[in-house]
Amino acid sequence: MSENPGLHELLRWYVDAGIDETIGERPIDRYQVRVSPTAVAMVPARAPVAAPAAPAAAPPPAPPRRRQTAPTLEALREAIESFDCPLKRGATRTVFADGNPRAPVMVIGEAPGADEDRIGLPFVGASGKLLDRMLASIGLDRASNVYITNIVNWRPPGNRKPTPAEIEACLPFIERHIELVAPEILVLCGGAATSALLASHEPISRIRGRWFEYTSPGLPHPINVIATYHPAFLLRTPGQKREAWCDLRAIRKRLDQGLARSKGDAGNPT
Question: Measuring CA to CA, which residue among 217, 227, 226, 122 is closest to residue 179?
Fold first, then answer.
């Protein structure tokens, strides 16, 4: 290399310029290089980028629940009997109500059982007999001061619980039923009646014994409401009768308070 000082200077210039690696003896014009189709096929394809999803459309608002406008209890009975409910197809009778429609206390249960379906009246089986004894313990009976019905007017197959859809279908009828009776106190027996009329998801064990107000467009004023265990549940779980007795005492106390206020108003006319 000392015999050719020009080449030596050229190499030093390459090193100073950062060129320190020899690629090949011949220059290659990269713009003229052709890539074979096979080589292209070996390059993994780039996954397409998905377009952003359009925001989900808001569900349409639920249609307002139809209201039942029967002017009398007899008209309401006829409307219920003519209603095409799937439960009706497997039931023997439509179970409407029992008791005094002008009573201060209205009791609402869940659905008819086998005895109720056979006779056509609510609470006439073993649970009905227990209910009668419970009411009698606080001076009430269905012949004079109690009116009794159910959320659903037909026996579900096999005495099963009515489904939420079945209850929803029958709800306009029980709402109108309450409006026509307009009791002083509404007693809801069991979780199905309680959740339907109070729109509550609390278990009956937590909501029972507490006072609420039931309002409806067809009522002149709110109604006092209390929930308690269904008599059928008490037959299976007698240990809960003590709590049910507390509920009954609360009902009796509220009735007495209302009676005292009525007497006071009568003795002090404005």
Answer: 217
Q: Give pLDDT tens digits for 40-99.
A: 445 455 555 555 555 555 555 444 457 889 999 999 999 999 999 999 999 999 999 999
Task: State pTM to two decimals.
Answer: 0.74
Residues 160 and 112 sit within 8 Å (Cβ to Cβ): no
Distance (Å, whole) CA 37 – CA 70: 82
Residue 60 CB neighbours (<10 A): 6
Tokens at 19, concatenated: 């060129």
CA–CA distance, 117 with 153 (Å, rounded to integer):
9
Helices of type H across 211-269: 231-236, 241-267
Residue with tokens 């007497």: 263
143 token code pair? 């012949």
Tens digits of residue pLDDT in 143-202: 999 999 999 999 999 999 999 999 999 999 999 999 999 999 999 999 999 999 999 989
Strand segments (E) across the chain: 98-99, 105-109, 146-150, 185-189, 211-214, 223-228
Residue with tokens 């005292």: 260
Q: How many Å apart are CA 217 and CA 255, to the nearest integer?
A: 24
The tokens of 160 are what?
């099963």
Residue 154 to residue 95: CA distance in whole angstroms: 6
Give residue for tokens 């109108």.
176
* Closest-CA residue to 157 (of 80, 91, 85): 91
